[in-house]
Amino acid sequence: MNFLEKISIISEYITKYFFYIMFILVIVNILLRYIFNINFIFMQELVMYLHAFIFLFGISICLKENSHVRIDVFSNKLGAEVKKYIEILGTVFLIIPFCLFVLYESTPIVIRSWEMLESSGEPGGLPFIYILKSSIYVFASLLLIQALGRLVK
């Protein structure tokens, strides 16, 4: 098992458990709100954070599992060799530049957020928005790793 596969397995594991935690938090939040008339802002924000993490990390998993959206109307009519070249071209000219662009553009935002230890504007909210903003960086990195892994295969 190479380095790229290990990172992929770890990200899948984390994403899966984030989903379980988010599911439990939603149930608890609903019970607290509608049965006990108690509302915690930090729980709502935590659910939103986990949802963002699941979505952003899940994109690289979809690429790895080859379960991302395609235009089947066109690709069904193409041969296997043509599909392979389209995959390579799409990875080289679309996915990799997109990842590099996101990394480049998000760097000042993430750095600024960490410098000021940005926190929620809501009273009782979570004090770590900088971690949420860092997930953009992790998303682009994981997607880039998956794209490079596909090119190597």
Ends: how far apart?
13 Å
- Could you say which structural class the secondary elements and strand pairing correspond to? mainly alpha
Helices and strands, in order, run as: HHHHH
Largest β-sheet summary:
none
Low-confidence stretches: none
Characterization of the model:
It is a single chain. The chain is an all-alpha fold. Helix content is 79%, strand content 0%. The protein has five helices and no strands. The protein is globular, with a radius of gyration of 19 Å. The two termini are 13 Å apart.
Helix/strand layout:
Layout: H1 3-34, H2 41-65, H3 72-75, H4 80-115, H5 129-152
Helix pairs in contact: 1-2, 1-5, 2-5, 4-5
Features:
153 residues; mainly alpha
